[in-house]
Amino acid sequence: MNEATKEKEGKSFLHSMVRAVGGEKLVLMGAIVVVFILFSSINKNFFSLTNIINLLVAASLVGLVAIGHTYLIIAAQNDLSPGSLAAFSGTLCALLVSLHIPFLPSILITLAAAAMVGLFNAAMVNKIKLDPFIATLVTQAILRGFAYIICDGKPVPISDPAFLYLGKARFLQIPVSVWIMIIAFVVFGFILAKTKFGRSIYAIGGNKDAARLAGLNPQKIITICFVMMGLFCGIGGIVFAARMNSGQPAANINLEFDAITAVILGGVSFTGGVGTMGGTVLGIILIQAFNTGLIMVNVPSFWQYVARGALLLFALTSDYLRKEKRRKNLLAASMKNA
Amino acid sequence: MEFSKSEPAKEDEQLGSTLEFKNISKYFPGVVALDDICFQAHSGEVLAFLGENGAGKSTLLKVLNGDYQPDKGQYLLDGVEKHFRTPHEAIEEGISVIYQERQILMELSVAENIYLGRMPANKMGVINIRQANKMAQKIISDFGLPISPQTKVKDLSIAYQQMVEIMKAYSRENLKVICFDEPTASLSDSEIQCLFDIIRKLKREDKIIIYVSHRMDELREITDKTAVFKDGRYVTTVANGEVSEKELIKMMVGRDLGDVYKNLDRDKTIGDVLLEVKNVSSDYVKENSFQLRRGEVLGFSGLVGAGRTELMRAIIGADHMRTGEVFLEGKKILNRSPKDAMDNGIVLVPEDRKMQGILANLSVKGNINISMLDQNSNQFGIMDPGKEEKTAAQGIQEFRIKTPSPDKKILELSGGNQQKCIVARWIATNPKVLILDEPTKGIDVGAKSEFYSMICAFAKQGLGVILISSELPEVIGLSDRIIIMKSLKIVGEVSHAEATEDRILSMSMIGGDNIHE
Q1: What is the complex's ipTM, to 2 decimals?
Q2: Which of A194, A197, A274 is closest, CB to CB, to B361?
Q3: Residue B315 and residue B348: Cα distance in Å, rounded?
Q4: What is the C-alpha separation between B50 and B487, in angstroms, rounded?
Q5: Cβ-based contacts of A195 with chain B (< 8 Å)
Q6: Which residues of chain B lie closer than 8 angstroms to A211, CB-CB?
Q7: Cβ proximity of B444 and B230 under 8 Å
Q8: Are A62 and A260 within 8 A, CB to CB?
Q9: pLDDT at A13 over 70
Q10: Would A242 disulfide with which of A26, A167, A201, B84, CB 3.0-4.6 Å?
Q11: CB neighbours (10 Å) of residue B464?
Q12: pLDDT at B264
């Protein structure tokens, strides 16, 4: 085994690099480099420290949601409610604080509510066997409604200093929201790759029936994934409100759209069972650079929608091509074995 | 019964068409479904496809009707190579397959089904139902059937529903090839005669007829030639009467498994009661009771749909157990889910390997380890890669799983080796009761005999083994006792010594043990 790898390493540096990082991820990194060069050449400010930090701040909410989507989509689930839930959570937390409930209890109440939404999504999928796409479309609509209802349609200004500090605080020059995202990526990347829970997610995403017969509990795992997503939306929504200095009931529309695009770009298969957190990180960087770049080079906002749609189509097409490649490789391998 | 040669073959007619497969191969991950298949069929002739389950007949029909595209070889119709991408394209060229499962719409009338998608209509696209009924009536009269074109198909008997399908194919003017996939499976004797009359009519009209069945007497009566298939390969084509039925069976089975069973190192010491099942029922099975002893191989026989799989699923908690009790080593246990059953030491290797057994997205290692997540992780739920390697390596070695590496995707392996991975998965959990549901279905002969030795070895180690199998020689050859189920209930039991194929078959079909009557 060792000798074989040594031999391979000897062959070429490039080859071993492709093996270590994975060909698909290298392509993604290449795409990120291209996007950066392209936008920097049009707008000099694109590749500046300030802009990169801004880019990461902008990515922090969608990054958290993308972690939730990575888990859910690998488990062959999905969630369309994060945009509404994040807006609802931010608004709720701002509202509670404005009602003179201390900041910490307000956060806990908000997160409990967000977790309940996750439970509700899971119940629709597990108990009434709804397709997760349609089930979470229900919550998307309901929560957007509640976000407006609780504040009577008006943004809730935040005056609590602790709350405002959450949006402004920096550690080593990097804003708290970005730290939260980075820590979450590391922790949940580790859980996905190295733990029992992670293994179970791949198994039920590959074949739910077989996984159940093999002694796993798919309903429980799916429930945990939805609740996690709820909490990510809750945390992200609160931090977002802190950054905006107000709870915005109309905010975060299309949040799930960007998160799903990033996750699929990053190599998670839309049909479940395949993908890594590292891929999602790259996907998030690419999509955020893309979105920020479009604004900075003054692409009209209506056209930005078209560009986003095109990017999702590109992500899905590459997912299809990866699947075809896997299928062909399998066929070739099994013909060889036969 | 005489071989029917009353219908003269009109080979030299102008209308005559031919259908030929030259070296057709079809691969699926892990399986060579068709390997170098060749056959020729001529108009005015009934060609039988004969082969065991898994011989490749249904795949062949799917290639024939354009559902599957062959990976190699030539598909020739009247000498012209065809590349059908969809069944629709094949139908357009005059090739129809009548499947066992009805492909008709129950809520529509006979005429509407016959002319589905091509109803006579005026220029505006408005359907002329009277015209359709008239045209349908003509075909019905042609076929000599006592049904009305306006009857809804759901109100017809199964035999007439099948006739509607045949008429639908027949109503296309360019029909050249018509294939029947086990058409008599659910027909009575008189209905079979009616069907044969129609096949003879099609034959007189110079159609190419392909007839898939393993009922020997039918082949003798209705077909002219028989193409024999085995394990996805073409064996030979023989004309009716050329060889005896015994020889045909030998060609189709191609081996004598008798010796395999005789040479097995069977467990001769059977221990105390390990598992006791009392009045277990679910939504899918009636109340059933049985006992399994330590070191015993307990066979379950019965027709498809008799409830064998469903009984096991209720026992392991895969389906909700409505009534009854399960005792393991004298202690009452309750399995609410397969996980509970696994923790109690009862495990099931499911029948449908692809849909319920393997995790297709995972490697061999991942598949073997999936039921060992608790044992191979620490108290924080973090996996120990070393333990995972070890579990996989043990399984691969113990069951001689042929894989280039534990990290290969399980789908790259052959069907038999995939199945061994599932067995390895369960044996790693150190179970007390191993339930095998059709463990050798769709795997090649060599791997089958390996499985047989494995099953005997498990029994020797003191496991209780439950073996569900539809292959009678297999269940008789391996089991110490055989329980027979019919219509969701256990109807009888025979010991290894008393077991014969006739006896078990008659019990599974009639219910009682008529030997003693």
Answers
A1: 0.82
A2: A274
A3: 10
A4: 29
A5: 377, 380-383
A6: 359, 370
A7: no
A8: no
A9: no
A10: A167
A11: 27
A12: 76
- Over chain A, what HEC string results? CHHHHHHHHHHCHHHHHHHHHCHHHHHHHHHHHHHHHHHHHHCHHHHCHHHHHHHHHHHHHHHHHHHHHHHHHHCCCCCCCHHHHHHHHHHHHHHHHHCCCCHHHHHHHHHHHHHHHHHHHHHHHHCCCCCHHHHHHHHHHHHHHHHHHHHCCCCEECCCHHHHHHHHCEECCEEHHHHHHHHHHHHHHHHHHHEHHHHHHHHHHHCHHHHHHCCCCHHHHHHHHHHHHHHHHHHHHHHHHHHHCEECCCCCCCHHHHHHHHHHHCCCCCCCCCCCHHHHHHHHHHHHHHHHHHHHCCCCHHHHHHHHHHHHHHHHHHHHHHHHHHHHHHHHHHHHHC
- R_g of chain A, CA atoms, integer Å: 21
Going from the N-terminus, what domains does chain A have, and what CATH number goes with each? 50-337 (1.10.3470)
Two tokens at B373?
Answer: 């997540």
Residue-wise pLDDT for A185-206, tens only, equals 999 999 999 999 999 999 999 9
Q: Give the pLDDT band of residue A16 (cuts 50, 70, 90).
A: low
Residues B235-260 have pLDDT tens digits of 889 888 888 877 777 777 665 555 66
Tokens of B38: 């060749």
User: What is the pLDDT, as a whole number, of residue B4?
Assistant: 44
- The full length of chain B comes to 517
Q: How far apart are CA B469 and CA B436, in angstroms?
A: 8
Q: Is B355 on the interface with A (CB under 8 A)?
A: yes
Residue closest to A338 by CA, chosen among B320, B27, B483: B27
One-letter amino acid at A17 equals M
